Amino acid sequence: MQRFLQTFLIFVILILIPQTSRADFKKTKIAVLDFQTQGEKFETEDIGKIVAEWLITALVKEGRFDVIERRLLEKILQEQKLGVSGVIDSESVAKLGKVLGAKVVVTGSVMKLRQFMEVNARLISVENGSIIAAEKVKSESTAKLEMLVSEMAEKIISDFPLEGYVVERGDDGAVTIDLGRFAGAKVGKRFIVFKEGKTIKHPKTGEVLDVARIEVGEIEVRTVKEKTATGIILREAPGQKIEYGHLVRSSIEAAASIAQPSLPETKTITPTEIKREIPQAIGEFNIGEEYYLLVTIHAAKYTATWENRTDIPAIRAGEKVVLTKIDRHYAKFTWKGNGYTFVYHHAKTPNAYMLSKFLTKDDPSPIIAGFPDDIKSVISQGEAKIGMTKWQVLYSKGMPVVAGNRKTHDMRLEEVLDANSWIYQQGHFGKLHIEFSDDKAVNVR
Questions:
Q1: N vs C: which end of the chain shows fewer Cβ within 10 Å?
Q2: Measured distance CA(124)–CA(130) in Å, rounded
Q3: How, if at all, do strands 116-125 and 104-113 pair?
Q4: 434/384 Cα distance (integer angstroms)
């Protein structure tokens, strides 16, 4: 009997090992074809191929897609005598999918007409040749094509939301989910949390058609490991509590919801007019609405810039401001009755990407209040010391001028947080260098 039990246990272990590996997150395999060109002639003849390359780069960078290598794709297309660019029929899509093992094929077009630019994309299911989604972005400027492609990538990414589970809720309120770096989870990404509700069954067959989802709350990722990510609770629905086993689904981040490559001139709103003015929506940032500073910014003569020189007066993270204007190169806001201009004229990213590094609808003050007294004291003084986390440094000193080897004017929040070396501008020539390891400052000089 003992030998039988040992044999049985070994058999069970051998069965469970491959099942565990198969439970790992699997990336969606995508093939991106060259885009067709329409309308007026482009300066570059290969613009369709270039647009496809930009889109591939953006999708690969997201981390949740397995994109077919371009040379292999072209080789297979030639062998199968299929078109390299443009929209292909459903039969060709199915044939291509069987050869490449792709789940989805992206086809599209880029059109130029005078000063008008439009990029269209269709996501086609390999399984049945049906169109999963059709996305379109456009601009009145022909000089922002790469920006449009980035916006298109964000739309495609939103068609494939990340889904997982809460695997732990700590005593401090921290929430860990089963989606890590490999799955595409990133610092700053937000997830809606659900629990399962009523089961909907077919009245005759008894087949489960759907399971109702009840929204419990929302979390934002702060640290990412290979297979898990840990975040803070932004909110919980009345009478609800985020718990182990709840479902999570990625929400569309404010920065990714809409890009604004070219915005018309907007009316400046004075503080007394704000309540009377109907808010004008620009992405997820609306003129006339209140926001909190996500990080500390520094302003002199009522002007702040993305360089964020730390030798000038600070407006602390958690302070409430009101947006009064958004332009291509700057935004205006009021704070304590005074008007300020935030200049990001060198930024190559859309307004929403830039503003999302500095503004939030969720007050960070409760998070800061939960830090140890010595950390709160350092933050209140606008200093940095060894042992502080990256977020604690952002609350204290704001955005660095350089993260890694890049200036931060065209970096997203998660890219800044991924870098382990930050530089702050202190005066015209002075600099503060901070080095991190495992999210903690290990050198401040």
A1: N
A2: 6
A3: antiparallel
A4: 8
Residue 274 has pLDDT above 50, yes or no: no
Residue 304 backbone phi and psi in degrees, to 5: -120, 150
Q: Is 11 helix (H, G, I), strand (E, B) or coil?
A: helix
pLDDT of 410 over the 50 cut: yes
293-306 in b/e burial notation, b at 16+ Cβ within 10 A? bbbbbbbeeeebbb
β-strand pairing of 28-32 with 104-113: parallel
Locus of tokens 């503003």: 355
The answer, as to whether pTM is greater than 0.90, is: no
Residues of the chain within CATH 2.40.10.410 domain(s) are: 163-251
| pLDDT class of 8 with cuts at 50, 70, 90 | very low
Q: The domain 28-158: what is its CATH number?
A: 3.40.50.10070
* Residue pLDDT, tens place only, 330-344: 889 999 888 998 887
Does residue 309 carry a pLDDT above 60? yes
Q: Where in the chain is the domain with CATH 3.40.50.10070?
A: 28-158
Whether 259 contacts 150, CB under 8 Å: yes
Chain centroid offset of residue 259 CA: 13
Q: How far apart are CA 304 and CA 298, in angstroms?
A: 6
Tokens of residue 2, six digits? 């003992």
Looking at residue 133, what is its pLDDT? 75
CA proximity to 296, closest of 397, 227, 204, 225: 397
Among 112-126, 167-181, 405-419, whose mean pLDDT is lowest? 112-126
- The CATH topology of domain 163-251 is Thrombin, subunit H (2.40.10)
Nearest to 347 by CA among 434, 258, 260: 260
Average pLDDT of the residues in 51-65: 81
